[in-house]
Design a protein that fits this description.
alpha/beta; about 240 residues; 8 helices; nine-stranded mixed sheet; Carbamate kinase
Length: about 240
């Protein structure tokens, strides 16, 4: 981790909860502006960026299913929540002068572009940020899996996940005071220890395609710019050479 990484294209995954700030539900404008500024700073480095944003701040499909709703319908509702979040972040990015496109896996032509892989690549080549909304477009798959899938499809050099903590811990550090933090792990270590970093399907997909996953805190100012340069506190998950 001492060597400075050289990323050409990256995918940033942010949970819906990451947009809540201090509010209990929905979107916090100040938090969205700050995250947009963080992304804009990395964009100015010449790094191509695409994003996947969760929808848990508005609606979480698995919670709806747990309360008795049909799981497929609940997941589709969650996908629509990710579109709302994506449009909010797009607006914040464009207010600071960063051209951004939202592409949805569920076609909704009046709101945003449909997901077309080649078009997304072309947008990034032209210096635009692309936000992938509506997950994979299929129920029973999380936005973590969507992030890993899009990272593979876009040929990203790494998948960055901005979370509530500054890396991977042996347990939730907010609940367990002596939780151990890891600087580096392999995909198999994460899977075998059942660490709740990302879904197992997302970890497996990244492993099969040798895309490293970098876990960092989205709430630390300047953290995204630091970690793409190999600085700051983060955990990198990758195959050992």
């Amino acid at each position: 981790m001492a060597d400075q990484p050289n990323y050409r294209r990256v995918l940033l995954k942010i949970s819906g909860e990451g947009l809540m700030g201090r509010v209990e539900y929905g979107l916090d404008n100040d938090t969205i502006k700050r995250i947009a500024a963080e992304v804009g700073r990395v964009h100015q480095m010449g790094i191509q960026i695409c994003m996947v944003i969760g929808g848990g701040n508005i609606y979480r499909g698995i919670s709806g299913a747990a309360s008795g709703m049909d799981r497929a319908s609940a997941d589709y509702m969650g996908m629509l929540a990710t579109v709302i979040n994506s449009l909010a972040v797009q607006s914040a990015l464009e207010r600071i002068g960063v051209q951004t496109r939202v592409q949805s896996a569920i076609p909704m032509a009046s709101v945003c572009e449909p997901y077309i892989r080649r078009r997304a690549v072309r947008h990034m080549e032209k210096g635009r940020i692309v936000i992938f909304a509506a997950g994979t477009g299929n129920p029973f798959f999380t936005t973590d899996t969507a992030a890993a899938l899009r990272a593979v499809e876009m040929g990203c050099d790494a998948l960055f996940k901005g979370t509530q903590v500054d890396g991977v811990y042996s347990a939730d550090p907010h609940k367990v005071k002596n939780a151990v933090r890891y600087d580096e792990m392999t995909f198999l270590e994460v899977l075998s220890r059942d660490l709740k970093v990302m879904d197992a399907s997302a970890i497996s997909l990244a492993r099969e395609n040798r895309i490293p996953i970098v876990i960092f805190s989205i709430h630390n100012e300047g953290a995204f710019a630091d970690v793409v340069q190999g600085r700051g506190r983060f955990t990198i998950i990758r195959e050992k050479d």
